[in-house]
Amino acid sequence: MIRHLGVLQFKPEINQDQIDECFRELAGMVGKIPGLLSIEHGPYQSDEGLNDGFTHGFIMTFDTAESRDKYLPHPEHERVRQIVVPCLERVVVFDFAC
After folding, report:
1. Helix, strand or coil for residue 84?
2. Checking phi first, is residue 49 left (phi over 0); if not, alpha (psi -120 to 50) or beta?
3. 76 contact partners, CB below 8 Å, separation of at least 6
4. pLDDT in tens, 12-49
5. Which of 38, 53, 80, 94 has a CA positioned 20 to 30 A from the CA of residue 88?
6. Which domains does the chain have, with CATH numbers?
7. How far is the C-alpha of 94 from the C-alpha of 72, rounded, in Å?
8. Strand residue runs (E) in the chain
9. Per-residue pLDDT reduced to its tens digit, 47-87
């Protein structure tokens, strides 16, 4: 399995309704993109303070690296990117196998 981890910092003018819409759209890709098994997401939840301004995160689980690779150019992913990316100040994505 491949985990696709993202940490997000939304632009200051983005409100909670817009953030919720972004995560609804991300979650809606499950079942539409082959091999995308699940997505978990939420706001930063630690007093540690090592988030460097990132406020939210997600983890997508793919069945294989090949599925992850096919997800990247998939039309549904491209559609969702058009909604989410304009709301972001910064993003980091990191993939790892488990």
Report:
1. helix
2. left
3. 29, 32, 33
4. 999 999 999 999 999 999 999 999 999 999 999 999 99
5. 38
6. 2-97 (3.30.70.100)
7. 13
8. 2-10, 36-43, 56-62, 88-97
9. 999 999 999 999 999 999 999 999 999 999 999 999 999 99
